[in-house]
Design goal:
Elements: E1 7-16, H1 22-33, E2 41-48, E3 57-60, E4 71-74, H2 83-96, E5 99-107, H3 115-125, E6 128-132, E7 135-138, E8 146-149, H4 150-157, H5 167-175, H6 186-205, E9 209-215, H7 222-227, E10 232-237, H8 249-258, H9 264-277, E11 285-291, H10 295-312, H11 316-328, E12 337-339, H12 340-350, H13 354-369, E13 373-379, E14 390-392, H14 406-410, H15 413-424
Amino acid sequence: MPKVTEKEWTVMVYLAGDNNLDSAGVIDLKEMKKVGSTEQINVIAQFDREGKSIATNRYYIRKGGTLAKDVVGSLGETNMGNPRVLEDFIKWGIKNYPAEHYLVVVWNHGNGWNDENVYRVARNMMKLNIKRRGEVVLPAKGAQKDSVSIRRIHAIGGKKFRHALFHTSIMKAITIRGIAYDDDAQDFLDNIEMKRLLGSTKKILKRKIDILGMDACMMSMAEVVYQLRDSVSLTVGSEEVEPGDGWPYDRILAKLAKKPAMPPNELATTIVNGYVASYPANAGVTQSACDLSKAGLLASAVDQLADVLNSHLSDAAVRATVIECRLQTQAYDTPDYIDLYDFCNLLENKTGFDDIRAACSAVKNMIQRNGVVIRSGYKGKNVKHSNGLSIYFPQKSLSSLYATLDFTKKTSWGKFLERFISYTRRPD
């Protein structure tokens, strides 16, 4: 391992590539090598490739040469869907590559937990038999405890669960009946895991991580920024699903190499600008940088909006307006996620009640004018009403996991959703 002293920045990229994006991980590492580490920047990575026989390697990325020469540690086969493996990587990076600032990037498999991955979790980790029509078709490896149906496996492995970051989310989905076939709330469970592991990291660093980059799907949410507010200063992420190309690491690192003393706000903005610029005009991409120090003020504004809406929901005309705005609001690949600013903007313009208008305006101000979203961008007409921050707004059923989030405990948004759905749901 090269001897290093404290630099301006350490960039840590955690590539969970033991899936169908294995080749994309190789491409991104090669992009990083176009710039590599410099006298003022450490670029390190941990990459788990597809296949049981391929070891998870840690890299100190240098400009040029081969990836093999950049390997500084081999961990054998790891489960990078385990949040503790990510936690160990961050702690290792802080200890061995100290810097004034840290950018941690969680690079996730965009197509994620396909059926094969869920089978592996169920059989190997949870020791569950796989059953079809009451018959065991794939016995568990090791001590057999219980069974799970193939139908359940397919439900979890399908599109609705493709954004899961950690295997703990999959285990929860397999075992808890409260997560229905059409539930889209998998990211929320992962937010709880992220809060725990980043809180542990903060204790070692004795301050917040400067930037948490989520080169993954649909993580720029009000619930996320509030959940991570105590351990992260800034986040960079997307409201929409990210294409397989992900971040343009060569462009981002080139900008940082030219200005290694770049403050965190500027680097976060640079990432957003570089990401959006790297895609064609109709790509349908979004990216935004958020200041988590304002997360508490945002939560208070959303809480006030929820209270005001609850006070008016018995009015059929108000309900009709809310429903109309909800249907017209910018939504994403998971349709229960909508752009928060766009919803408030529509509602402010359509409602006849001053208190609703004032509450909508306050939320809008906290998203843009007062700086929760310090930079946002998009490309594509399908996402043209994106403003940097989404929120959970289901229309049919509320996830049982939503109540476990800090945001739900702090605000009345969950209570508003329950009441709204009670009006819109078809009677039994």
